[in-house]
Amino acid sequence: MTRSVDHSAAADTTKRLTGFMSSLDRSMPRLTTGPDLSVVGRALADTSRSQMLTGLLTGTAWTVGELASYAGVARSTASEHVGHLSAAGLVRLVRQGRHTYVSLAGPEVAAALESLSLIAPDRPPVASLRGQRHARELAAGRTCYRHLAGAIGVRFADHLLDGAFIDEASQLTHEGCQWFIARGIDITADVGNELIRPCMDWTERRPHLAGTLMDRVTAHALAHDWIVRTSHPRSVRLTDEGERQMFSR
């Protein structure tokens, strides 16, 4: 027995279903376009580019030639790499005369790089004596963009907390205000910027301190020889005067 099909009823059902789906689609919230992490991922995927970004964690501007030397590549290759990093929004370029100066695009880039260092696998052990010395110096003390990191940075964070110069929330206390002022360090807050915030240290695996005030501490410490640069562009060493000024009560 042949079963008859009511084509008009089927068409009506299809029409109603299409109308329902259309109204449902209009009522659904539109998902905004999220950040394209793949752009940053591609920029970081090259070893030489990652090495350049590590160098820029000094917080200073480098020429393309200096970055080429640091990463061990030709200047023309370094220039291409800088272009990739700039397109990804990771670095800022300033042209002055014959030179192009390259710096990190901002503290948020430095914070992201430091955070990625926590989950990145360790590089193979360095065979050269110079490389081993650099590794020890970086672990002992270094600049993370514009603030102190490494063993010195973590020790300084502990000192401020133990001395009640900051509280458990990394907020400056009354005693802390007096401590910094006595050492000639400006404690004025910048609108929109945190004075102090914890930043996980990738070598110590404990927090050091970042923020506007910590940037000022590092600049002041370098200017007054409390800390001095060593053989690696990022590493710093605590001086006797720095020990007295930074770790006294």
Automatic annotation (TrEMBL):
Entry GO MF terms: cadmium ion sensor activity; DNA binding; DNA-binding transcription factor activity; lead ion binding
One annotated GO biological process: response to cadmium ion
HTH arsR-type domain boundaries: 29-124
Record-linked InterPro entries: ArsR-like_HTH (IPR011991), HTH_ArsR_DNA-bd_dom (IPR001845), HTH_Metal-responsive_Reg (IPR052543), WH-like_DNA-bd_sf (IPR036388), WH_DNA-bd_sf (IPR036390)
SMART domains hit by this protein: HTH_ARSR
CDD domains assigned: HTH_ARSR
Highest taxon listed in the record's lineage: Bacteria
Pfam assignment, any one: HTH_20
Designated name of the protein: ArsR family transcriptional regulator
Species this chain originates from: Rudaeicoccus suwonensis
